[in-house]
Amino acid sequence: MTLEPGGLMARILVVEDEEHLARGLQFNLEAEGYVVDVTGNGEDALTRLLAPAVAYDALVLDVMLPGKDGFTVARELRAAQNYIPLLMLTARSRPEDVLKGFESGADDYLPKPFNLDILMARVHGLLRRKHWAEPARSASTAESGLSGAPDRIEFEGKVVDFEHLRVEANGKVVQLTVMEVELLRYLVKNAGRPVSRKAILEDVWEMHEDTDTRAIDNFIVRLRRYIEDEPARPRHLTTVRGLGYQFDPAPKPE
Question: Partners of 9 in the beta sheet?
Fold first, then answer.
C-alpha cells in the first residue's frame, strides 16, 4: 500500500484517451497501492482538479487528447495556481516538445512507449516532491547576503526555498515547478558569471545545443516576475547580450 506522509493512500488522476492504455495504467498503479481515477479528456480533468470533490496527489497527463490537449490542461492548471505534481506522457519526444511540456508546467515528461518500471519510479518521485513542497516549519535565515543552507538562499529581502519549491518576495509566496527550480538553482550556482543558453540546455535539461532555445527565454521571463522588483528592468537576473543570462544576488546600484 502506497501512503502519503500523513498515512493516507495517495490518489492519482490518469488522463488518457486510449482506453486500453488508461486501464493498464490504472491496473498497475492500483497494484502498487495507489487510488486511481481515470478520465479521457482534458475538460473533465480540469473540472476534477479545479473544483475537486476529492483531492488528488499526482496527475498523469497525456498530451494528445480530444478537445483541450495536455499542454493546455497543464497551462490552465498552473494559471489557476494548482501545482499538483504532473507527469506528462506523449508520443512526441522531440526536444522542442519536451521543452514545451516543461514550459506549460509539467514536472516530468515521459515519451511513449515507456517502460512501466520507469513510469512507476517517476510517479513515486512526483509524490516525494509533493511532500517536499508542503509548507515548511519556520526556520531562521541569515540577515543579509547570499546565505543559508544549500537548498535555501536569501538576498535583498527575497527568499528562494529550493527544497520546498517556492519563492518569497514582495510580500508574496510563489510556488515553483520543478523545472523552474532547477533552472534557478543552476543560475544561482553560477552566480556572478554568465551562463549560455547552450549550457542551460545541456546541464539543466540534458538536451542538444541545436534545440530551440525560446523556451529558456520564456522561463527567464517567469523567474523575473518572481524575484525582481521591476521585471522589465531586471537587476538580479540579467541578459548577457550574445551569450545568455547571469544571476547576481547583490548587484551594484545603478
Answer: 3
Q: Looking at the domain that runs over 11-133, which CATH code has it been given?
A: 3.40.50.2300
The C-alpha cell 515519451 sits at: 111
The CATH code belonging to domain 152-247 is 1.10.10.10
CA 184 from chain centre, in angstroms, equals 12
Cα separation, 153 vs 160, in Å, equals 5
pLDDT in tens, 17-69: 999 999 999 999 999 999 999 999 999 999 999 987 788 999 999 999 998 99
pLDDT mean across residues, the chain: 82
What's this model's pTM, rounded to 2 decimal places?
0.66
Burial class of 146 by CB neighbour count within 10 A (0 to 12, 13 to 18, 19+): middle
pLDDT digits (tens, 9 = 90+) for 193-224: 999 988 888 888 766 655 556 778 888 988 99
DSSP 8-state assignment for residue 9: B
Cα Rg of the chain, angstroms: 19
Neighbours of 145 (CB within 10 A): 12
